[in-house]
């Protein structure tokens, strides 16, 4: 049985067709990243799975339970943080996470021990101050810790690492992978393709309310016909398909030797900013522009 399944989800808001037939699945124990441009339909999809929104057509199931007809069964098995959610301001992170767990039926002592464990995992163990005086990143960590601490079977995280610094982001990745190992399945959204490349088992790419493809990060990168890329300052002649970045450009190559030839053809070696392999961000842009079809 899959953790999540959606078939032909349609959702309209007035004239806006937010979802135009979204189909996707996440296996049990898998972390599925839902990625796509602003307004693509990521949050709408998550809100349908979490029983916050009814689809106009199509079906969605969580652990086999229909999100409309069996919403109570779904709610018992999930934990969700919406985008930009703000917790109780006057509580400390420890009190906040403890309260969330107690509301889900945990005893006080177990809830507090669990709260400490996950706040510690996210580097917030010394935060005994009320949430209202914490930095934006510390608040975000408290909210993510609350969701992970629930041990719910399926976790939904809408941009959990938005605004977090590089080190904390890695702590969150570690905590997410730990949660998967302990038996949860996770659907998360992110705009950071570097993050998706590291943390996701599979990535569903959504654009204008339709899922374009759903595959492992590596399989998505392999869809790109190029293997290498270089960022160069403008100055030498560039191929016609170079991506214009104002005074710089990204140039793609099918092989290392093509990259080498290009670098040696530059009129000034100082024009080369960086060179390396293509990654998920390149695949994302390639696939969104209709490549690979
Ligand atoms: N409650 C609503 N009322 C009207 N339109 C809505 C509502 N919620 C979403 N939409 C519209 O539906 C479309 C999809 O929005 P959604 O929030 O799902 O996108 P998203 O992929 O999560 O975007 P972002 O990356 O910016 O968070 C957008 O055009 C948005 O304006």
TrEMBL record:
SMART domains: AAA. Keywords: ATP-binding, Nucleotide-binding, Transport. CDD domains: ABC_DR_subfamily_A (cd03230). SUPFAM superfamilies: P-loop containing nucleoside triphosphate hydrolases. The keyword Nucleotide-binding applies. One of its GO terms (molecular function) is ATP binding. Signal peptide: none annotated. Residues 4-233 form the ABC transporter domain. Pfam families: ABC_tran. The keyword Phosphoprotein does not apply. It comes from the Archaea. Belongs to the ABC transporter superfamily. This is ABC transporter related. The lineage of its organism: Archaea, Thermoproteota, Thermoprotei, Thermofilales, Thermofilaceae.
